[in-house]
Amino acid sequence: MMSTVAATETTLTKKRHLLDLQDWSAEEILALFDTSDVMAQVMQRTIKKVPALQGFTVGTLFFENSTRTRLSFERAARAQSADVISFAAGGSSMSKGESLKDTLKTIDAMQSDLYVVRHAVAGVPYQLAKWTDAIIVNAGDGRRAHPTQALLDAYTFSREFNGFDGFKGKKLAIIGDVLHSRVARSNMTLWSKLGAEVSLCGPSTVLPKELEFAGVAISDNIFEAVEGAHAVMTLRLQKERMQAGLLPSIAEYQTRYQLSEAVMRLAHPEALIMHPGPINRDVEIAGVLADSERSVIEKQVANGVPVRMAVLYTLLVGKK
Amino acid sequence: MNLSHKATIMTATEMNRALTRIAHEIIERNKGAKNLALVGIHTRGVPIAEHLAKLIENFEGIRPQLGKLDITLYRDDLSEIALQPVVKKTEVPFDIHGMRIVLCDDVLFTGRTARAALDALIDMGRPAVIQYAVLVDRGHRELPIRADYVGKNVPTSKQEVIKVKLQSVDGAEAVELLEIEQ
Amino acid sequence: MRTVIKNARLLDSEADYGLNDLYLKDGLIEGYNLGGEVTEGDDAAGKTVTPAFIDLHTHLREPGQEVKEDLCSGLSAAAAGGFGTVISMANTNPTVDEPGLVADLIAKAKAVGQARLKPAAALSHGLKGELLTDFAALKTAGAVMITDDGIPVADSHLMRRACEYAAPLGLIIQTHSEEPSLRQNGVMNEGMVSQRLGLPGNPSSAEAIMIYRDCELALMTGARVHIAHISSRRGMQVVEWFKEQGAPVTAEVTPQHLTLTDEALAGFDPIFKVAPPLRTQEDVDYLRDALKRGVVDNIGTDHAPHTQAEKEQDLVAAPFGIANIELAFALLYTELVKTGELSLVDLLKLLQSGPARIMNWPTPKLKPGQVADLVVLELEQSYPVEAANFKSKAKFSPWDGQKLTGWPVATFIGGKQVFQRDS
Prior knowledge:
The complex is a heterotrimer. Chain A has helices at 26-44, 67-78, 100-108, 124-131, 147-160, 182-193, 222-226, 240-243, 250-257, 261-264, 287-291, 297-316, and strands at 9-10, 57-62, 83-88, 114-119, 135-141, 171-175, 197-201, 216-219, 231-234, 272-274. By secondary structure, chain A is α/β, with parallel strands linked by helices. Chain A has a 5-stranded parallel beta sheet. Chain A has a 4-stranded parallel beta sheet with strand order 3-2-4-5, sandwiched between helices. In chain A, β6, α6 and β7 form a beta-alpha-beta unit. The longest helix of chain A has 20 residues, at 297-316. Chain C is built from 14 helices and 18 strands. In chain C, the strands form 3 sheets. In chain C, strands 1, 2, 3, 4, 5, 16, 17 and 18 form an 8-stranded mixed beta sheet that branches. In chain C, α2 packs parallel to α3 (135-141) and α4 (156-169) packs across α7. The two termini of chain C are 26 Å apart. Chains in contact: A-B, A-C.
């Protein structure tokens, strides 16, 4: 035991899992952002590695493929010297004759301290949390939640917005297929918790009909939604939505909901442009805007690693 | 855990005297203040490094580089502790390559903090020399580590605690010996 | 063989006969307080004896899905729940779409010697919704109901022809009324809760629209159409509207839709995944009100057992269904009768005379000469649900551990005791 560092311990250790952001306080999230700053420092050094999570094992369980998110988490784990085991399985495990619980139990026998879980169906991280003693981090479940994406989005905004002085009084506009977007859902939870105003915008077929959130406005008019916004986030338009009869044509979508320079003129003059990626250039966002100085799309990707490092550190250290 | 006051080991004057001596020793050992950097270990190593830097500047007319080091991510007990240490920012705003670095801390005890600090520093580059300055050495080493500059050697028992108070952190200046009440 | 049940309160959906000794002989009710020699006797002081219940909606999973349930476990579970007669659904593997399969089920069930089985037969071959099955031959083999339950009949023309063909045969058509293209891949009720949980929703309009179609076809063809497991206010309102116009339709609700809401899914446990889905409190309140107003004809359990492993899947992969037949009465008694919402007699009607009338079967009564299918109920005592001790193979339950009042303690089929609750 090190005995000289007893004074500065945190209360941020009581959380067992990161299933969504509902039970995380604004204070805890801002503390996580501070830790992310330290992790970002590590990622800027020549030697991008610290021994903090030596002895811990992080398992990535990707029941739905997402190379970007998995790589980001694995980098975050390895940069802190954790061991990583990866499990990728498409589709239902029952097709192999075993239940989801069976699959988890098999992997659990290999002794991970924490699982990063991605699944196409909402609620799976909750189900797994019931069946294992390990910590569960939700890396996206169905259309429900993608908490680390929202964390890195809000973190990026707080560190990139010129003269940032807190989330109070800020406005985030989210444009696109809000209904099917876990990114939109987690961001609206997080930003409204941090005190920002959120406005959701998209064709009415892909907007939630009713919301239990205070401080979240719903509109099918992009001008209304973007007006005065400090951050404008566009969502990837899934082509399947047209086939499912939810949207008419791409052309109609572009006309009504593409983030264009004309629309951005209504936003706050310093507004940042965000996108969870990958973008459909000139579909949901004008290519020139994605490449412009106001775009922080690449910063979002880069910040994914330090924010996830902070998440892993926060959830793992101090649990014994 | 209750702590009871046992003795005052150093007063403010004595602390100042010890640091002045250390500043001289650093200058002497490094033949001046050229390429010299003082890196304080969070939390109380930081004001000690600042204090030493000021003294060295007064004596030599050259201000050494100053840095702050947080060793949390290098602790060797993170997988076994029950409370989570807050990670603080490391600020070493200069290239440490080829520098003569003096790590500064308040108390040298098991040596594990120094070990972590060495690893943290070396991950940032390759200094010419790393030396180690502490205000108090209380013994009970668990690693083969010693300090190059010591304000005061204080033999202690394991039931005792050394508390260094610094104006900028604690609003007072003293070194106290406390005892854990059973 | 002559049996006596002494000091029991005798009650059916028509009369309360008070405390009596009930004598059973050769499978029939012999009479009250007769005295004389008996082969077997039991004291039922403090207990209530009533005709065994009828369930028009049971999934027994045989043939082909015996890992979930089989005739022996399912009919034993039914008897333990106080049910004397159950109608088995046809969504098995193979589906019950041929007369031979119907005859097989009846023969096997007889050998089991628990609750009586009356099989339903499939409406379309393989439940594919394409070709009608041989209704007349199926009826001759013993099928009492035609239904593709489990899978809604998407093709309205096929449903029309089924109604037309069944009407003169006097066969009841039971419908699983959900418009498939509207319910899509919904795993729960569409609404505030599905929005919060991020789960694909199934709107109650999918049910209401299909109920409208099925009622309209009943009115058009004169066929007897039984609307199964109505879950929503809108769905029930459609049935009421058609009933007012004299359409030959009857309405069923299930214990789960009367007692649980979509909030049950908040813990993401597929044990609560059922089709049609659990709805909102407003819907539950409306269905309960419909019970009181007498517009519901029967309560069917829709006992739908699955293996625990199948329910330990994600919410899309996990199958629909709740196994409940053993606790159905205690649950309904606790939630509806003990709370004062419904009288005991009204509940008995929904489980005895109601389903009998739908099927054109004689009203179950405690009259001498009637078949001695009886259940002995302990209406005063409360016990927790112990799913691990279920006769059903599905030994888990949404109500596991919950204390319920009004458990069946003994069941007689044809005068023979087939179930005795362990004390």
